[in-house]
Specification:
two-stranded antiparallel ribbon, mainly alpha, binds zinc ion, 2 strands, 84 residues
Length: 84
């Protein structure tokens, strides 16, 4: 079960039949709240951790997984009269 708390950002994998999610907790600086100037280093580290987690998961999928999902979404668009 996914432990989602107020203020979290949840990112789901876009690949069909994959239930992986990445949960980001709110960034809190040593001063207790984010400020653009004081929190830049903390935010940069946070973003690097997120990118690393997403890349590590996305690398687990084969190209065929992405193609199958894209093909299904294109078909869904055509069925609903939407330009893919
Ligand atoms: Zn996935």
């Amino acid at each position: 079960m996914v432990d989602v708390r107020a203020g979290d950002t949840v990112r789901s994998c876009p690949v069909d039949d994959c239930s992986w999610v990445h949960i980001e907790r709110p960034v809190i600086t040593p001063l207790g709240a984010f400020t653009p100037v004081l929190g830049y280093g903390v935010i940069a580290q946070h973003m690097q951790r997120i990118e690393a987690a997403l890349r590590a998961h996305f690398d687990e999928h084969k190209v065929e997984d992405y193609l199958r999902t894209i093909t299904r979404l294109q078909q869904l668009c055509r069925e609903n009269g939407v330009e893919p």
